């Protein structure tokens, strides 16, 4: 995101805004953008954002507060993608071959994966953890 660099370089350095008042004015919006970027860029950046969220010595307080949402509120990826990952990993063309039921939406999601509630064909209740696409096994 070039916005933060623009604020720092142009507004701060070239226009002699030594107190970075323009940069501070944009901090709330930039912090929300940082959260969005971490989420969009995937697991590695989510982990980075989680680490930065507790390091107010490295990032401004507003950024840290915004990034703390990554500690316990990572948005899930598509359930259709999750089902495709499950089919591939389990070597089946239809998940009904293995599961009697499988929840439509995840019951939890995190930086590396998400969890679905399911029941196997033999009646055993299971938690089905699906790794986010694009993570090396």
Describe this structure in words.
It is a single chain. The protein is an alpha+beta fold and 137 residues long. The chain is 49% helix and 15% strand. The chain is built from six helices and four strands. It has helices at residues 2-14, 21-41, 43-52, 61-67, 69-72, 79-90; strands at residues 99-102, 108-109, 113-120, 125-131. Strands 1, 2, 3 and 4 form a four-stranded antiparallel β-sheet that branches. A hairpin with a 4-residue loop joins β3 (113-120) and β4 (125-131). α2 (21-41) packs across α3. The radius of gyration is 21 Å and the shape is elongated.
Describe the secondary-structure layout:
Blueprint: H1 2-14, H2 21-41, H3 43-52, H4 61-67, H5 69-72, H6 79-90, E1 99-102, E2 108-109, E3 113-120, E4 125-131
Antiparallel strand pairs: 1-3, 2-3, 3-4
Helix pairs in contact: 1-2, 2-3, 2-4
Category from helices, strands and their pairing: alpha+beta
How many helices? 6
**So what's the overall shape?**
elongated
Number of strands: 4
Q: How much helix is in the residues?
A: 40-55%
List keywords for this structure.
about 140 residues, elongated, single chain, 4-stranded antiparallel sheet, alpha+beta
What is the structure about, briefly put?
Helices cover 49% and strands 15% of the residues. The chain has 137 residues and is of the alpha+beta class.
């Amino acid at each position: 995101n070039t916005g933060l660099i623009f604020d720092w370089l142009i507004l701060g350095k070239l226009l002699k805004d030594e107190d970075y008042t323009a940069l501070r004015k944009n901090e709330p919006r930039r912090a929300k953008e940082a959260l969005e970027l971490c989420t969009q860029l995937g697991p590695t950046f989510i982990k980075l954002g989680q680490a930065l969220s507790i390091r107010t010595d490295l990032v401004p307080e507003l950024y840290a507060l915004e990034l703390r949402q990554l500690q316990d509120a990572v948005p899930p990826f598509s359930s259709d993608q999750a089902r495709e990952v499950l089919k591939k990993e389990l070597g089946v063309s239809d998940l009904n071959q293995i599961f009697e039921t499988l929840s439509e939406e995840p019951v939890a999601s995190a930086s590396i994966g998400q969890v679905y509630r399911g029941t196997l064909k033999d009646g055993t209740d299971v938690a089905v953890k699906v790794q986010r696409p694009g993570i090396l096994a």
